Amino acid sequence: MMKPNPGLLLAALSALSLTSAMPALAQSANAAPDSASLDVPQLFATTCGWCHSDAGRAAGKGPQLMHTQRSDDFIRNRIKNGKEGAMPAFGSVFNDAQIDEIIKYIRELKPREG
Amino acid sequence: MKRKPRNFALPVAFAAMLAGSSAVAQSVDTARIEAGGQNDWLTYHGSYKSYHYSPLAQINTSNVGNLSVAWIHIPGRSTRGLQSMPLVADGVLYYTGSYSRVFALNGATGEVIWSYFPELDEALIARQTHSPYNRGVAIGEGKVYVGTMDGRLIALDMKSGKVMWDTKLVDSQKLTVGFTGAPLYAKGTVVIGSQGGEWPGRGPIFGVDAATGQKKWEFLTVAGTDDAMKSWGNDSWRTGGGGGWMPGTYDSETNTIWWGTANPAPLYDWSGADYKTQGARPGDNLYTSSVIGLDVDTGKLKFYHQELPHDAWDFDSAVGEFVMLDRDGQKYVVHPNKSGYIFVYDRNAGVKNVWRITQNSNFVKNIDPKTGELIGRRDFSAGKVSEPLCPHISGGVSWNAGSYDPKTGLYYKLGQEWCMTLEVMKTTPIVAPQAQLNIGADFKIAPPPGGEIYGHLDARDPITGVKKWEVRFPEPPLASVLSTGGNLVFVPDSRGTLHAYDAESGTELWNHADGTGHQGGIVSYAVNGKQYVAVVAGFGGMASDDYAPTFGGVYKSMPRDDGALIVYSLK
Asked: Which residues of B carry out catalysis?
């Protein structure tokens, strides 16, 4: 029998909506407001990185994102709607501002040092 | 727009005539599956003994050179290829394509007897990662059973394809995961395990009444008992992962379902060596990465062995093979762990031996062959991991099955040699609005130290692991293996070639191009005295999607949305 866990319920969307430094209990269970910022590196280590290898720096199941020539509109559309059999659709998970943060992260990707 | 379910059936009289032409059609029940008649392939693993072996010997070492294509079936919409294990009963072949499309075909001609395309929650499937492939059906009590990606188990009339019942088992809209694995039929119960692993749920395995579709029981692989609950610190069981996404088997002597469970979430923990008290999920995390024995009638846990306590590498136990064999008065169960270590148990999951099929392995120094204890385990802290982890996340062995030939006494199993670099990172489980993957690291495929990635077919003693011969492949084959009474071992490789080897020597005797890579099942059966070998071809999925960027070559142009069932016989 599952008991309600306030910490978990309130932590809904935590990694997506708020930076990880915030304690879970302080986070909102509601969808993230437009101004909420994403911890995109953590998001890649949580979800995206299975396919976009090395946090988007290398090709894997999905394409390499670092230095991509795709336009912002293309990337935004792909994140929202996915591609059958290749990329899940995240349109119900991220708002436009959050997707813009993901695009910003992709544009700033650099090879790892060392 | 949602599609309507399609159900195309030839007149029932035709189906009856077909069945009557090959054999007297009988009901498929537990006793018949147990007996494993040589003309049929009645359950995912061939029989409850999980041999993936056919005693048929019409196709053999002396005439395999005359093997040629008898017929082909194209299921369509093979998104991420074909991964199904066909079943055959009384001359009718049943198999699935992506999106749980089910086909019943004349085993001699390939003619479609009926097909069933379920109406699925396509918006949900568009949000899934380990999807929309399907790995097959179960048959029993005049019905064909198939799981769906949106969390349902459906029973179809074996003769007509008509829906007999449709039971929702998993809240996939919230948990995001559903069913890709084949169900198992045994003793009036259909057993099916949910996806899970890196998904923050509790990984249920279900027992459903075969006659009515009513759920009989549910076993939670994450903290499914009070004792297990204590092995998850900080309430981490709430998002623990687990699951059992491949079919196990049934031991009629003890009335027990054997099942392999998936890994905990996140895949990679940042606990360091103090994993009992630190990190994302402090403790052993029962019953993840374990083999479990459940009472088939009640789902009650009878025994278990956790192959990897606190699995911190995603080397789970979900492989469904439980090879049951007797030797010198002892009854053994052989089960491959994804890490490449092969566990040998008694019939209560007591460890009798552990051996390893891979060359490149460093997540532990060893596993004690007497106790199964992990020796010298590598538990990571957050940050870059200095030495590459071996094997790669795709495993030392695939989820697909090997084959045990009781005539040669050899176990034919594919091993995979590859590694990965990784940087472990702290994550937070995402459970709303829909659950998301929880990996816990950034990673990249890497060759083994001082060498290249490769795969190998080994012929080994299943109990001791002693190797008799090996055949190497430039890229790891991912499909299932078949051995037959004709002294043959069939290996469908990743490039798309089906190979036949001499079971005693490993000498290649025949091969044929199937046009695209293999990553699913292969079976043999007979209709009207003629032997057939059926294999699915069609590439794509969590392991094979890495092949194009890693290996290039033929994989660069290999489709990941296509596939065919190809059936061979002698000319």
From this structure: 314
